[in-house]
Amino acid sequence: MSTVMNAEAAHPATSARPAPFRSVWSELRETSFRQGWIDAGGIRTRYIQAGPENAPPLLMIHGTGGSWECFCANIAAFSKDYNCYAFDTVGTGFSDKPDVDYEIPLYVEHTANFMKAVGISKASIIGVSLGAWIAVRFALTHPDKVQSLVLVSATGLLTDAKTSSDIKGARFNAVDNPSWENVSAVFKGLILEEQNRIPDFVSVRQAVYKQPGMRRAMEHILCLQEPGIRARNMIPESEWRTVQAPTLLIGAVDHQDIFLETAKQVAKLIPNAEYVEIHRSSHWSQFEAPEEFNRAGIDFLKRTVTR
Which CATH architecture has domain 3-7+23-158+237-304? Predict the structure, then answer.
Protein backbone atom coordinates (compact mmCIF):
# COMPACT_ATOMS: atom_id res chain seq x y z
CA MET A 1 0.00 0.00 0.00
CA SER A 2 1.69 3.23 -1.09
CA THR A 3 1.46 6.54 0.70
CA VAL A 4 1.33 9.83 -1.23
CA MET A 5 2.73 13.00 0.29
CA ASN A 6 3.62 16.48 -0.94
CA ALA A 7 6.93 18.09 -0.04
CA GLU A 8 5.65 21.49 -1.17
CA ALA A 9 3.82 22.10 2.10
CA ALA A 10 4.48 25.79 2.63
CA HIS A 11 6.81 27.85 0.47
CA PRO A 12 6.84 31.63 0.36
CA ALA A 13 6.45 33.19 -3.05
CA THR A 14 9.71 33.58 -4.87
CA SER A 15 11.02 37.13 -5.05
CA ALA A 16 13.08 38.95 -7.63
CA ARG A 17 16.24 38.59 -5.57
CA PRO A 18 19.21 37.06 -7.40
CA ALA A 19 19.63 33.33 -6.85
CA PRO A 20 22.34 32.46 -4.32
CA PHE A 21 25.67 31.34 -5.73
CA ARG A 22 25.94 27.57 -5.85
CA SER A 23 28.90 25.30 -6.52
CA VAL A 24 30.01 21.85 -5.44
CA TRP A 25 32.32 23.48 -2.92
CA SER A 26 29.67 25.85 -1.55
CA GLU A 27 27.56 22.78 -0.79
CA LEU A 28 30.42 20.91 0.93
CA ARG A 29 32.61 23.62 2.45
CA GLU A 30 31.27 23.12 5.99
CA THR A 31 31.27 19.33 5.80
CA SER A 32 34.02 16.93 6.78
CA PHE A 33 34.55 14.46 3.95
CA ARG A 34 37.24 12.54 2.12
CA GLN A 35 37.62 11.56 -1.51
CA GLY A 36 39.59 8.58 -2.67
CA TRP A 37 39.89 5.59 -4.99
CA ILE A 38 39.43 1.98 -3.95
CA ASP A 39 39.68 -1.38 -5.71
CA ALA A 40 36.14 -2.73 -6.02
CA GLY A 41 36.40 -6.16 -7.63
CA GLY A 42 39.25 -5.03 -9.87
CA ILE A 43 37.61 -1.70 -10.75
CA ARG A 44 39.52 1.32 -9.49
CA THR A 45 36.57 3.27 -8.10
CA ARG A 46 36.37 6.96 -7.19
CA TYR A 47 34.25 7.77 -4.16
CA ILE A 48 33.52 10.24 -1.41
CA GLN A 49 32.80 9.38 2.24
CA ALA A 50 31.22 11.61 4.86
CA GLY A 51 29.60 11.07 8.23
CA PRO A 52 30.34 8.91 11.29
CA GLU A 53 31.72 5.56 10.22
CA ASN A 54 29.72 3.82 12.96
CA ALA A 55 26.44 5.32 11.69
CA PRO A 56 24.02 3.41 9.43
CA PRO A 57 25.54 3.17 5.92
CA LEU A 58 23.98 5.07 3.02
CA LEU A 59 25.05 4.60 -0.61
CA MET A 60 24.38 7.23 -3.28
CA ILE A 61 24.31 6.07 -6.91
CA HIS A 62 24.26 8.62 -9.75
CA GLY A 63 22.68 8.40 -13.20
CA THR A 64 23.79 7.74 -16.78
CA GLY A 65 27.36 8.87 -17.46
CA GLY A 66 27.43 10.94 -14.26
CA SER A 67 29.58 11.15 -11.15
CA TRP A 68 29.22 11.51 -7.40
CA GLU A 69 29.07 15.31 -7.63
CA CYS A 70 25.33 15.16 -8.35
CA PHE A 71 24.87 14.51 -4.61
CA CYS A 72 26.88 17.51 -3.45
CA ALA A 73 23.75 19.23 -2.04
CA ASN A 74 22.74 16.16 -0.02
CA ILE A 75 25.93 14.88 1.57
CA ALA A 76 26.10 17.52 4.30
CA ALA A 77 22.53 16.91 5.47
CA PHE A 78 22.56 13.11 5.33
CA SER A 79 26.06 12.72 6.78
CA LYS A 80 24.92 14.13 10.12
CA ASP A 81 23.22 10.81 10.87
CA TYR A 82 24.50 8.39 8.21
CA ASN A 83 27.79 6.99 6.98
CA CYS A 84 27.51 8.27 3.41
CA TYR A 85 29.30 6.87 0.38
CA ALA A 86 28.77 8.30 -3.11
CA PHE A 87 30.79 6.66 -5.87
CA ASP A 88 31.40 6.80 -9.62
CA THR A 89 29.93 3.60 -11.03
CA VAL A 90 31.89 1.29 -13.29
CA GLY A 91 32.78 3.02 -16.56
CA THR A 92 31.71 6.48 -15.42
CA GLY A 93 33.20 9.54 -13.82
CA PHE A 94 36.80 8.90 -12.88
CA SER A 95 36.40 5.17 -12.18
CA ASP A 96 37.90 2.48 -14.42
CA LYS A 97 36.28 1.86 -17.80
CA PRO A 98 36.59 -1.79 -18.83
CA ASP A 99 35.89 -2.57 -22.49
CA VAL A 100 32.55 -4.32 -21.97
CA ASP A 101 28.94 -3.18 -22.12
CA TYR A 102 27.67 -1.82 -18.81
CA GLU A 103 24.41 -3.64 -18.27
CA ILE A 104 22.50 -3.65 -14.99
CA PRO A 105 24.03 -6.91 -13.62
CA LEU A 106 27.52 -5.41 -14.00
CA TYR A 107 26.48 -2.28 -12.08
CA VAL A 108 24.96 -4.50 -9.39
CA GLU A 109 28.15 -6.53 -9.15
CA HIS A 110 30.24 -3.37 -8.93
CA THR A 111 28.00 -2.00 -6.17
CA ALA A 112 28.35 -5.24 -4.17
CA ASN A 113 32.13 -5.17 -4.65
CA PHE A 114 32.28 -1.53 -3.59
CA MET A 115 30.35 -2.30 -0.40
CA LYS A 116 32.72 -5.17 0.34
CA ALA A 117 35.76 -2.99 -0.33
CA VAL A 118 34.67 -0.27 2.13
CA GLY A 119 33.48 -2.79 4.72
CA ILE A 120 29.70 -2.39 4.46
CA SER A 121 27.44 -5.44 4.76
CA LYS A 122 24.07 -3.66 4.55
CA ALA A 123 23.06 -0.15 3.48
CA SER A 124 20.25 2.10 2.40
CA ILE A 125 20.55 3.44 -1.15
CA ILE A 126 19.65 6.70 -2.82
CA GLY A 127 19.58 6.22 -6.58
CA VAL A 128 19.04 8.82 -9.29
CA SER A 129 17.70 7.67 -12.69
CA LEU A 130 20.00 4.84 -13.79
CA GLY A 131 21.14 4.79 -10.16
CA ALA A 132 17.54 4.08 -9.12
CA TRP A 133 17.38 1.22 -11.64
CA ILE A 134 20.62 -0.21 -10.24
CA ALA A 135 19.38 0.21 -6.67
CA VAL A 136 16.15 -1.71 -7.28
CA ARG A 137 17.87 -4.56 -9.11
CA PHE A 138 20.49 -4.65 -6.34
CA ALA A 139 17.70 -4.88 -3.74
CA LEU A 140 16.10 -7.74 -5.68
CA THR A 141 19.41 -9.58 -6.10
CA HIS A 142 20.73 -8.93 -2.59
CA PRO A 143 17.72 -8.27 -0.34
CA ASP A 144 19.84 -9.02 2.74
CA LYS A 145 22.17 -6.12 1.85
CA VAL A 146 19.53 -3.37 1.55
CA GLN A 147 17.65 -1.61 4.31
CA SER A 148 15.74 1.17 2.51
CA LEU A 149 15.58 2.75 -0.95
CA VAL A 150 15.12 6.36 -2.07
CA LEU A 151 14.49 6.58 -5.82
CA VAL A 152 14.81 9.84 -7.76
CA SER A 153 13.66 9.84 -11.42
CA ALA A 154 12.96 6.13 -11.18
CA THR A 155 13.46 4.02 -14.28
CA GLY A 156 13.62 0.38 -15.27
CA LEU A 157 9.90 -0.27 -15.79
CA LEU A 158 8.94 1.78 -18.84
CA THR A 159 10.73 2.72 -22.04
CA ASP A 160 10.37 5.58 -24.48
CA ALA A 161 12.19 5.79 -27.80
CA LYS A 162 12.40 9.58 -27.85
CA THR A 163 13.87 9.75 -24.34
CA SER A 164 16.50 7.15 -25.24
CA SER A 165 17.31 9.03 -28.45
CA ASP A 166 17.69 12.33 -26.60
CA ILE A 167 19.97 10.76 -23.99
CA LYS A 168 22.20 9.21 -26.65
CA GLY A 169 22.26 12.32 -28.81
CA ALA A 170 23.29 14.75 -26.07
CA ARG A 171 25.95 12.48 -24.58
CA PHE A 172 27.56 11.32 -27.81
CA ASN A 173 27.64 14.92 -29.01
CA ALA A 174 29.35 15.99 -25.79
CA VAL A 175 31.91 13.19 -25.92
CA ASP A 176 32.70 13.66 -29.59
CA ASN A 177 33.17 17.40 -29.09
CA PRO A 178 33.41 18.19 -25.36
CA SER A 179 33.04 21.95 -25.75
CA TRP A 180 31.52 23.93 -22.90
CA GLU A 181 28.38 24.42 -24.99
CA ASN A 182 27.96 20.74 -25.83
CA VAL A 183 28.57 19.53 -22.29
CA SER A 184 26.24 22.22 -20.91
CA ALA A 185 23.51 20.87 -23.20
CA VAL A 186 23.55 17.55 -21.30
CA PHE A 187 22.28 19.34 -18.21
CA LYS A 188 19.27 20.85 -19.98
CA GLY A 189 17.66 17.43 -19.69
CA LEU A 190 18.67 17.02 -16.06
CA ILE A 191 18.06 20.40 -14.41
CA LEU A 192 14.92 22.47 -14.93
CA GLU A 193 16.16 25.99 -14.14
CA GLU A 194 19.20 27.35 -15.97
CA GLN A 195 20.54 29.02 -12.83
CA ASN A 196 21.01 25.58 -11.28
CA ARG A 197 23.09 24.25 -14.18
CA ILE A 198 26.18 25.35 -12.31
CA PRO A 199 29.61 25.64 -13.98
CA ASP A 200 31.06 23.05 -11.57
CA PHE A 201 28.88 20.34 -13.08
CA VAL A 202 29.85 21.31 -16.61
CA SER A 203 33.54 21.47 -15.73
CA VAL A 204 33.60 18.06 -14.04
CA ARG A 205 31.62 16.43 -16.84
CA GLN A 206 33.83 18.07 -19.45
CA ALA A 207 36.94 16.65 -17.75
CA VAL A 208 35.32 13.22 -17.64
CA TYR A 209 34.38 13.34 -21.31
CA LYS A 210 37.91 14.39 -22.33
CA GLN A 211 39.48 11.27 -20.81
CA PRO A 212 41.24 8.90 -23.24
CA GLY A 213 38.94 6.14 -24.44
CA MET A 214 35.81 7.96 -23.32
CA ARG A 215 34.05 7.57 -26.68
CA ARG A 216 34.28 3.78 -26.36
CA ALA A 217 33.22 3.96 -22.71
CA MET A 218 30.19 6.06 -23.65
CA GLU A 219 29.15 3.40 -26.15
CA HIS A 220 29.22 0.90 -23.28
CA ILE A 221 27.33 3.29 -20.97
CA LEU A 222 24.60 3.97 -23.52
CA CYS A 223 24.04 0.33 -24.41
CA LEU A 224 21.00 0.44 -22.10
CA GLN A 225 19.37 2.89 -24.52
CA GLU A 226 19.43 0.24 -27.28
CA PRO A 227 16.01 -1.48 -27.48
CA GLY A 228 17.17 -5.10 -27.30
CA ILE A 229 19.68 -4.59 -24.52
CA ARG A 230 17.29 -2.36 -22.58
CA ALA A 231 14.50 -4.95 -22.84
CA ARG A 232 16.52 -7.73 -21.24
CA ASN A 233 17.52 -5.45 -18.34
CA MET A 234 14.05 -4.10 -17.53
CA ILE A 235 12.34 -4.93 -14.24
CA PRO A 236 8.85 -6.29 -14.89
CA GLU A 237 5.87 -5.39 -12.70
CA SER A 238 5.95 -8.83 -11.06
CA GLU A 239 9.45 -8.15 -9.70
CA TRP A 240 8.69 -4.63 -8.52
CA ARG A 241 5.96 -6.23 -6.38
CA THR A 242 8.58 -8.36 -4.62
CA VAL A 243 10.84 -5.51 -3.47
CA GLN A 244 11.19 -6.05 0.28
CA ALA A 245 12.92 -2.80 1.25
CA PRO A 246 10.81 0.21 2.27
CA THR A 247 10.99 2.57 -0.69
CA LEU A 248 10.54 6.32 -1.14
CA LEU A 249 9.67 7.49 -4.67
CA ILE A 250 10.34 11.12 -5.62
CA GLY A 251 8.04 12.60 -8.26
CA ALA A 252 9.24 15.78 -10.00
CA VAL A 253 5.76 16.97 -10.96
CA ASP A 254 6.88 20.08 -12.86
CA HIS A 255 8.51 17.88 -15.51
CA GLN A 256 6.02 15.44 -17.03
CA ASP A 257 8.04 12.59 -18.46
CA ILE A 258 8.60 8.84 -18.40
CA PHE A 259 10.48 9.10 -15.09
CA LEU A 260 7.56 10.75 -13.31
CA GLU A 261 5.17 8.15 -14.75
CA THR A 262 7.50 5.37 -13.60
CA ALA A 263 7.62 6.79 -10.08
CA LYS A 264 3.83 6.93 -9.91
CA GLN A 265 3.41 3.40 -11.22
CA VAL A 266 6.04 1.67 -9.11
CA ALA A 267 4.82 3.47 -5.99
CA LYS A 268 1.66 1.40 -6.46
CA LEU A 269 3.59 -1.82 -7.11
CA ILE A 270 6.16 -1.90 -4.31
CA PRO A 271 4.44 -3.21 -1.15
CA ASN A 272 6.00 -0.76 1.30
CA ALA A 273 6.29 2.41 -0.80
CA GLU A 274 5.78 6.11 -0.24
CA TYR A 275 5.50 8.74 -2.95
CA VAL A 276 6.54 12.38 -2.45
CA GLU A 277 5.98 15.14 -4.99
CA ILE A 278 8.64 17.82 -5.33
CA HIS A 279 8.17 21.02 -7.35
CA ARG A 280 10.55 23.37 -9.20
CA SER A 281 12.79 20.58 -10.44
CA SER A 282 13.10 17.98 -13.17
CA HIS A 283 15.49 15.01 -13.31
CA TRP A 284 17.77 16.06 -10.45
CA SER A 285 15.34 16.93 -7.66
CA GLN A 286 18.03 16.09 -5.13
CA PHE A 287 20.05 19.09 -6.36
CA GLU A 288 17.39 21.51 -7.58
CA ALA A 289 15.20 21.23 -4.49
CA PRO A 290 17.65 20.07 -1.82
CA GLU A 291 15.74 21.37 1.19
CA GLU A 292 12.58 19.50 0.23
CA PHE A 293 14.45 16.40 -0.91
CA ASN A 294 16.74 16.23 2.12
CA ARG A 295 13.84 16.75 4.52
CA ALA A 296 11.73 14.04 2.87
CA GLY A 297 14.63 11.61 2.53
CA ILE A 298 15.94 12.00 6.07
CA ASP A 299 12.45 11.71 7.54
CA PHE A 300 11.91 8.52 5.55
CA LEU A 301 15.23 6.99 6.59
CA LYS A 302 14.67 7.82 10.24
CA ARG A 303 11.42 5.86 10.08
CA THR A 304 12.77 2.89 8.14
CA VAL A 305 16.43 2.44 9.10
CA THR A 306 17.44 0.66 12.28
CA ARG A 307 20.87 0.86 13.80
Answer: 3-Layer(aba) Sandwich (3.40)
